[in-house]
Design goal:
- This protein is α/β, with parallel strands linked by helices.
- Helices cover about 45% and strands about 15% of the residues.
- Helix 3 packs parallel to helix 4 and helix 4 packs parallel to helix 5.
- It starts with 8 loop residues before the first strand and ends in a 6-residue tail after the last strand.
Length: about 250
């Protein structure tokens, strides 16, 4: 690797699996020390063996006090990646108020909390990169049965742009990554729970004109771009990585 993050410290939520895990590993390979956070600490048992510069921490991103404590304990952070999230499957008619509230809490309010916790330190040091993982689903284009999820990810994009504008002269950059349908344990669970898993898998793959699902390594590479100096002149932007889904 090229050491593009040498000497930097990153905090990655949702690092127990999928994109968050891939991002944590790639950032470590590129020289960063990484605090990898997940609600299920056991999912990250192997990360320090794979990359000794990764420190796993258990964290429920819906717990305000726990978020503040974890970020304070992490020390001076150069990079924050908000990757924790939850997918509700259903239209607005299928979505209960509890599902709606959970979607906003886990996908959007969690970003609000982590950003509020890291931002004062980043501003004081005059540098920082915040990367919010949103989605093309509904927040960029309409996707069936993603009412609450799409709305919550649209809120993430709005938050990204607003914070980027507010801190634009401080040295802190804030951007959003919008993946298309990506192969991950979460997706596999949804496929397995469907009435016809093989048909569902084909349907997910066919969303992308490129003809396949995205890979978590491709999303990690996009996050690396935002984290590194390559994107020093980039803030408040949305990077869509979706195999042509939104063409």
């Amino acid at each position: 690797m090229s050491g593009r993050l040498e000497g930097r410290r990153a905090f990655v939520t949702g690092a127990g699996q999928g994109m968050g895990r891939a991002i944590a590993l790639l950032f470590a390979e590129e020289g960063a020390s990484v605090v990898a956070a997940s609600r299920t600490l056991a999912k990250m048992d192997d990360l320090p063996r794979l990359a000794p510069s990764i420190t796993p921490v258990g964290l429920d991103v819906t717990d305000r006090d726990a978020v503040q404590a974890a970020i304070a304990a992490a020390g001076d952070l150069d990079i924050l990646v908000n990757c924790a999230g939850w997918v509700h499957n259903g239209s607005i008619i299928d979505c209960s108020e509890e599902d709606w509230a959970k979607s906003l809490e886990q996908n959007a309010t969690s970003c609000f909390r982590t950003i509020r916790a890291v931002l004062p330190g980043m501003i004081a040091r005059g540098r920082g990169s915040i990367i919010n993982v949103a989605s093309v689903a509904s927040s960029i284009t309409g996707v069936a049965n993603r009412a609450a999820y799409g709305a919550s990810k649209a809120a993430v994009i709005g938050l990204t742009k607003q914070v980027a504008r507010d801190v634009i002269r401080t040295g802190v950059r804030v951007n959003a990554l919008c993946p298309g349908t990506t192969a991950s344990p979460s997706l596999e669970n949804r496929i397995a729970a469907s009435a016809d898993p093989e048909a569902t898998r084909r349907e997910f793959a066919e969303r992308q004109p490129i003809g396949r699902l995205g890979d978590v390594s491709e999303m990690a590479a996009a996050a690396l771009y935002f984290a590194a100096d390559d994107a020093a002149f980039t803030t408040g932007q949305i990077l869509v990585v979706d195999g042509g889904q939104t063409l």
